[in-house]
Queue: 3 jobs
Job 1
Amino acid sequence: MNIFSWLDNIGDAAPQQPPKPRKRNLQQHQQVPTPSQSTADTILDAMSSSPTKRLRTEDDGGENPKDQEDQEDKLGRDEERTPRRWGSGRYSDNLSKRSSATSPSKRSSRLSPSKRLAALEVATHEPVVVTQIRATDPRMPTELIAMVKALSGFQTRLPFVPGYLAAEIETRARIDAEFSDFHPSMFQLADDPFVPHLSLDRIMEVYEAATECCNEGHAEATWNTLIHWPVFELALGVIRGETLERTSMPADGAQRRDHPVRVRAMPCTTARLKDHQQGAKMVDFSLFIEPQGLDADKINELRQRLLYINHTDYHPLRRRPIMLSAESKRPGEGYQEAQVQLGVWQAAQWTLLENLLSSQSATTRLGLIPFLPALIIQGHEWSFAATTRSGRQTVLWAKKVIGGTDTIVGMFQIIHALRHIAAWGRDTYWPWYRRAILQMGEEDLIVAEAIHTP
């Protein structure tokens, strides 16, 4: 039994109490009744509940579901620690009405994220622990250390701005202070022909939108629509159902080609864990591999016994292997909640990968990939995170800042970091997935590469 099936079998953390008779002149103070079960297993009901998130292009004038969730979390913390007077009975009536009108998952979602994280650490099935990214931690695999080191380089010394933009940026810097932070060492000498061409005007549009969202206090859905998703598109290109054109000729005259292994991003705010449509934890974006040719055929063979190849039954991802998941929050809000969501989400992904491997012959079975990358986005700030697997325990490593949309330089850092992570997906994750999960032998790989070669 995994953690998600187990959660479904846990009873309510806060069973209803029989109504108490009202007493007009009761003078003594009483505590709000606490749950009869105090174990971490009972608290874990909170981890399979969250209001449905939806991507909106603008505020619709109604209450933001994420704001409501934050208010409920605050209410839960207040109820847990604040004595209440029963005097008129009004508070007990309101509590009873809320309990009867609210599902168990709604009630448990009022627990603070810190308590849910604490419960995850000691969960009976597949616990999740959160720890700081630190290269000296012996639990941190060498491959993850290398990734963090590379991402750190983009913040300090390595070039991350396409060289074809150098002249335009130099010209703008003479009249616009926003470009004063650029210096020659930031520009790449050679451009990657397999990445989308960047338009400085488009980058400025997203930058201005980020300023608007921050200054005017826009909702998370607006940040996702106007800022976060456009940044993914700038870095990786748009979602397309068919193979991209092999060549294109942008204004700089450099020839662009579609990489034979395509990594794209997708908004997935309504994606749910398999068999947990009601209240399962969600993420906002996923990076996935777009299988083609023989790879797509192998995926379809796998889908004959596993309809959805990921840990979610979100239809657009039914045949596209997820390699990274990202959760977004408003500026300065919900960081621990994002950790809960990513931890539970990627724990399910690890379980699926392990189950797929365990179904194979022991003589040909490969080991797990060293880590699964993730992102936590808080308003302007983008941070790299990752999970690793140790037995049944998932370790969430957080966080390494990779850039911010509050500066133009920061936007280029994010774009370059996303492209670097996507390259890891092409060069490391996908070859492992083909061999370990799709069980493609050397002959299959040779045929696939021949088909994909331009």
Note: The longest helix spans residues 408-436.
Job 2
Amino acid sequence: MAKARATLGSEVVLTDDFDALVRRPDIDVVVEVIGGTTRARELVLAAITAGKPVVTANKALLAVHGTEIFAAARERGVAVGFEAAVAGGIPIIKALREGLTANRINWIAGIINGTTNFILSEMRSKGLDFGTVLKEAQRLATPRPTRPSTSRASTPHTRRRS
């Protein structure tokens, strides 16, 4: 925190005690920018328990703990904003919730992320098997964090190699 304090200055309030943070009456919304799943989950659930709405773009957090987080939010009657974690940040969640409410949507299909798009496109267009295309995707890009390809969660980020 010393580095953050030096960078941000004394007018910015910094804390590593998120339990105290979420209990503060002057905090209206908690924005999770920790990343990962363990501490981020603890922060988000502490905020929800304290009745604070939460905003996160943390795909890994939602993939691993989303069911628990959304259930806790429903139980406490607080919102969880997560639009930036979905579909590359395009504003699809708001459109579905607010703009298309008069329509009955039975099914939505889409590509999970760039790596998945590449894999599915190559398998379909070239008739290649998953293992072959996965190896090619790994050669072209470095998926991180590493997750099993059988995971329900997509790989949150892809970085191209030059």
Note: The helical segments are 2-8, 18-23, 38-49, 59-76, 92-99, 114-126, 130-140.
Job 3
Amino acid sequence: MNKLAGAEVATDYTITFGDAVIDDKVTLNATIVNGETTGIEDIMATASVKVTGLEAGKYTVATFDANTHTPGNTWDSEAPSFALLNAAGEVVALGNSDGKNFYALGDLTLDTNNEFKADNGGVLKDVAAVMTTATGLKDGDTIEIKADGGINVSTQEAADKAITIINDAIETVSAERSMLGAMQNRLEHTIANLGTSAENLQAAESRIRDLDMAAEIMEFTKSNILNQAATAMLAQANMAPQTVLQLLG
């Protein structure tokens, strides 16, 4: 594919975007693509069309049909008219500016106003004439899409969009920083608790290591002797009343 507005294509089908605004989507100035066995024709439009969910990377051409886009004719897109496969082998969604997918629109009809209309109500507007043909592209070929991430401020609309994207990015970063701050606070609290537990454990270990076993054994023996003496004295005290009772009996 070549002569795409804002894009240059090498013979290995590498598309390098120039001043396209990137916001997790790749913005193309092509509304639709129609394939033939020897190449694909790209129909250009004045309105940008987004390839939704398509990040920079290598994609494989899955399939495209060979119907001719002429006013009044119907483009049967029950099978994808032009589909790309990602690295996982999944068909990526090629959508218009309203987020509709080309391959999910059903039958498309090009009317005299150069608008594609789908049988499910989808419309692709501002379709111009066929511009060029990229020969040699066929099913199974790999194309690589690269985006330099530049910002287009040549028009008020593009500048407003760039500002919106930047503001969204700032809000996203702020939200992430807030989440990271909360996580950091929880981690610091946990670390402080672990530090206190470690200090208590070290103090207990120190007391155990510093214990004087001889003194402790002597204290234990003393307590044991006193306990036995108290038991013997109590036994003697209990025997005196019993002796008196025996004499009286």
Note: The chain has two domains: 7-150, 153-213.
